[in-house]
Here is the input.
Amino acid sequence: MKNILVILTHPSIETSTINAALFNSALSISHVTTVDLYKEYSDFKIDTVKEQQRLLAHDVIIFVFPTYWYSTPALLKEWQDSVLEYGFAYGSTGDKLHGKPLICVTSTGSDITSYRNKDTNELMIRDLLLPIERMAEDTGLNFVEPLVLYGARTAVEENRLQPHVDEFVRLLNSYKCI
Here is the structure.
């Protein structure tokens, strides 16, 4: 069984519908460890050693966050800057994360049409996640296709939240038998 680390980065989870539902669905799964970065590090002072130990203790890393203004919440970037140090995550001896899957689970307030390239009609979300994908490449993590809920503002009214949560739980459980 693969141990999964779910890292939630949402600055106001108490007002979240989507990310709170995703995070809460992971709480009762035995092979999943959940971390709420804003709860633990509201002062943005990351405990680097603690976070590195968490990474070492898990086989799969999942970032759960809302996409704000076409980017991640600030604390996720701060976490990357603090935790993914030279000699640990990259560099000649920085191989501690090699081969571990990294999955981004994100939501957008706007619907999918706001994330389509007007010229090609291709989705832009991979472009927006390119910094994370490149970070994964540089640290030896295996970047996995992201799970995205577009139009989160209307997901409840349109009955799209529960199917998305169910898909997330399936994703978490897919690593149970590997």
Observations:
- The chain has a mean pLDDT of 93.
